[in-house]
Amino acid sequence: MRNSRTLLSALLLSISIILLAQTDPKLRPSEVYVLMRDAVDNNPREERIAITKPYMSRAIKTDLSDIEQFYLAELHFWNFMPDKAHEIYSKFLTRDDSLGRACWQRVLQIEFVAYEKAEKVERAIEEFRNKFSPQPRDELYMFGQVYNVGNKYAQAGDHQKVLDLVNNELDILDYEWPYKSYLLPVYFFSSYKELGETDLAIKLLKDARAGLQKKLDKRKETVLDNDPDFARHSERVEGMNTIMTTRLSYNQSNEKFEDAISKMNNYIQRMGQAMKKLPEVSIASATRSIQKLPWTLLSKDQEGDASSSNVDGKSLSYHYNQETDTLYFKFELFDGFNADAPAISVALDIDSNQENGIKWYGSNKAFKVDLMLSFGPKRDGEKYFGYNGITDAIGIKNRNWINIKQGNLRFYIDNKNEVYYLAVKKNDFAPYSTSVNLIGSVGSNSIWSDDIGKEGTYSTIEFVK
Ligand SMILES: [Ca+2]
Ligand SMILES: [Ca+2]
């Protein structure tokens, strides 16, 4: 036994030496692609490019068939070489088969991400739909493009455009496959929320669920003598969205429907919870006694540096009344005053320790936050509903702005001078602190727009004992 094992080892060793001697035999791009994919799959923790790049030199690059040229483009695509990938994919855009379809999707992805041609990509979505019908082999269809362009509009606050993009995609899909685009109302739920259209988002999801269930029931009526393979267009593998590499059986395909339907059930439930009406909050007019408090300036901010929603912060001041333990903040704006849906927040480092806390989500990412005061109501008739309270790192992460304390902030508005005031008991957020660091933020409709306190800078309030 020992002898045979030794013999085997010697044999293996000599084989490895022979293999080493033939340095890097050249392979077809599709073969290199499989090696890269497996390497990524087997090293999920490593940076992808570090794993895939060494394989690039193995690929044969000349005299290739169309499909091998496509795989060569994929190699470039996955190694962040957009120009070379784009050049090859572009050769096949006139084709109307799966290869043409995949090349269109890749070209649009490159043009959006690497070339920043968002408008061109948006126009091309319709062109793609005219050229290619949805089909089960192509799970993505225009998902990636609607997602990219939609995100751009969502960030710019143009939520109607987002809804139009999603609707156009959903209109054309046919329930023949659990296309990824059916989840677009989930990904863009905040846009539906902004427009008061949460019911519509849920309805779209319910329609998709019903359509897929019907299709699945029908599929299950078919009894198959054998279980044929069904080539699928794409499959996500540890960060690499590969194309035309997966084969699913008929029953495995049914499982894909079941997975999608169960996912949708979860989302529908969660969206319903998120729709629960926010509490009523009150807004008072700023009295003269508040305006005349002995304000101390904490921070001034530049004009014209607001995000797309255009609420432009100018300054943040404070006054602390020790007798009543009340801390007042005064927010002045250059632009974007919104009496119907004001939004302000104070991000606090309550232990004067910037080593802990969560990274601020606004522009001042270097500032670390322990607690945040937030006030963001929206007018509904004669009343206001929205956020009034305190959140911690977990709340900030989950966008739940009132997970620590609710309804404890007082808000005053000066419509004439376009100034916001906020009052809070120090005891509510930092009873024992003698010093807190902070930055202020302004926005509207519960959407952040501008920080007062930028690039790692912050103000400090010392509380005299
Ligand atoms: Ca500003
Ligand atoms: Ca801290």
CATH classification, class level of the largest domain = Mainly Alpha
Bound molecules: calcium ion
Alpha carbon gyration radius? 29 Å
Distance between the termini: 83 Å
Mean pLDDT: 89
Flag low-confidence runs.
235-241
Helix content: 40-55%
CATH architecture of the largest domain: Alpha Horseshoe
Strand content: 15-25%
Q: Which outline best applies?
A: elongated
SS-derived structural category: alpha+beta
Largest sheet properties: 8 strands, antiparallel
In the CATH hierarchy, the third-tier topology of the largest domain is known as Serine Threonine Protein Phosphatase 5, Tetratricopeptide repeat
Number of domains: 2
Number of DSSP E strands: 18
Q: What's the total helix number? A: 15
Question: What are the salient characteristics of this protein?
Answer:
465 residues; 6-stranded mixed beta sheet; 8-stranded antiparallel beta sheet; Serine Threonine Protein Phosphatase 5, Tetratricopeptide repeat; binds calcium ion; 40% helix; 2 domains; alpha+beta; 25% strand; Immunoglobulin-like; elongated
Can you give a write-up of this model?
With 465 residues, the protein is an alpha+beta fold. The protein has 2 domains: 183 residues, Alpha Horseshoe (Serine Threonine Protein Phosphatase 5, Tetratricopeptide repeat); 183 residues, Immunoglobulin-like, CATH 2.60.40. It contains 15 helices and 18 strands. The strands form 4 sheets. Strands 3, 8, 11, 12, 13, 16, 17 and 18 form an 8-stranded antiparallel beta sheet that branches. The protein has a 6-stranded mixed beta sheet with strand order 4-14-15-7-6-5, with no helix packed on it. A two-stranded antiparallel sheet has the order 1-2. Helix 8 runs antiparallel to helix 9 and helix 12 packs antiparallel against helix 13. The protein is elongated.
